[in-house]
């Protein structure tokens, strides 16, 4: 499954076009390799996604073509969620 579709179906990112844009900006890695929107994701892959001041690391558990809201979290597990501190405002 393509990374942009996985991020949308798993509801990590709400729109596929936004997921595509983030991937094509080089802000997503799959197993320590920079991903493009067309990069393939498989179970047990580790994804690192950079959103502004937040970095989300997840492990892919399963791939589903469609999900209901309650089933979306079955697709991945959060490994870590890190926030950069804004030292300018302290």
Automatic annotation (TrEMBL):
Keywords: Protein biosynthesis, RNA-binding, rRNA-binding, tRNA-binding. One of its GO terms (biological process) is rescue of stalled ribosome. Gene3D superfamilies: RNA-binding S4 domain. It holds the Pfam family S4. Transmembrane segments: none annotated. Residues 1-68 form the RNA-binding S4 domain. It comes from the Bacteria. GO terms for molecular function: ribosomal large subunit binding; rRNA binding; tRNA binding. Key component of the ribosome quality control system (RQC), a ribosome-associated complex that mediates the extraction of incompletely synthesized nascent chains from stalled ribosomes and their subsequent degradation. RqcH recruits Ala-charged tRNA, and with RqcP directs the elongation of stalled nascent chains on 50S ribosomal subunits, leading to non-templated C-terminal alanine extensions (Ala tail). The Ala tail promotes nascent chain degradation. RqcP is associated with the translocation-like movement of the peptidyl-tRNA from the A-site into the P-site. Associates with stalled 50S ribosomal subunits. Binds to RqcH, 23S rRNA and the P-site tRNA. Does not require RqcH for association with 50S subunits. Belongs to the RqcP family. This is RQC P-site tRNA stabilizing factor. It comes from Lentilactobacillus parafarraginis F0439.
